[in-house]
Specification:
mainly alpha; 47% helix; 0% strand
C-alpha cells in the first residue's frame, strides 16, 4: 500500500497526536515510506514520492537516532530510524542476491568480480598510477614550494614580438 498524498494533510476528525505526519499516522506511514526506501535506497526520492521534504525526514531520523542512543527505543522516531536502517539493508541484500544470481546461474563472472572488488579492498583495481612500470624503478623528486624563488617571472620564456611579414612583390617581367 502506498501512502496517499491526501493523508498528508491533517484530518480534523482525528485527534491531534503530534505536529508531524509521522507522529499523527505512526506505523502505517513508516511502512509506506520504508517501501520506497527499499526500492530506491534514497531518502530524498522516497520523501518526494510522499510529498515531503528530505529535510523533514532527516530531522525525524536524527531525532530517532538520538532517542536510540538514550535508550528510548519505544518512541515513534526511534522506530522510524530503525525502520529506515532495516529498509536500506534490505535494499543492499536484495541487490547483492541479484548480483550473485547473475554470477552463478547466468555465468556473468563480471558481476562476481564487481562485488568482490567493492567489498574487499585488497581486490580493488589499483587507483594509484604505477610509477615503477616494467622497466625498473623511477625516482620522483618533489620540490617544496618554499624552495622555489619568490619571483617566477624569470622562469618563463620571454614573449617574442610578432613580426609583420610583408607580402612578396610580383615580378611581372
Amino acid at each position: 500500500m502506498t501512502w496517499p498524498r491526501e493523508k498528508l494533510k491533517r484530518d480534523p476528525a482525528k485527534p491531534d497526536l503530534g505536529n508531524t505526519i509521522l507522529e499523527r499516522e505512526g506505523k502505517p506511514f513508516i511502512e509506506s515510506f520504508c517501501k520506497y526506501v527499499e526500492l530506491t535506497d534514497s531518502i530524498p526520492e522516497s520523501a518526494s514520492m510522499l510529498g515531503l521534504t528530505p529535510t523533514a525526514i532527516y530531522d525525524w531520523k536524527a531525532r530517532g537516532d538520538v532517542h536510540l542512543e538514550m535508550g528510548k527505543s519505544d518512541t515513534i522516531f526511534a522506530e522510524f530510524a530503525l525502520a529506515i536502517k532495516k529498509s536500506r539493508s534490505s535494499f543492499v541484500v536484495r541487490n547483492m542476491m541479484k548480483i550473485h544470481k547473475a554470477a552463478e546461474i547466468e555465468k556473468h563472472w563480471q558481476a562476481a568480480a564487481w562485488t568482490l572488488e567493492r567489498r574487499r579492498p585488497e581486490f580493488r583495481l589499483n587507483q594509484e598510477p604505477d610509477y615503477q612500470g616494467g622497466g625498473g624503478n623511477v625516482q620522483v623528486q618533489f620540490i617544496e614550494e618554499t624552495a622555489l624563488p619568490e619571483k617566477r617571472e624569470h622562469y618563463q620564456e620571454p614573449v617574442k614580438p610578432v613580426q609583420k611579414i610583408e607580402p612578396l612583390e610580383d615580378d611581372d617581367d
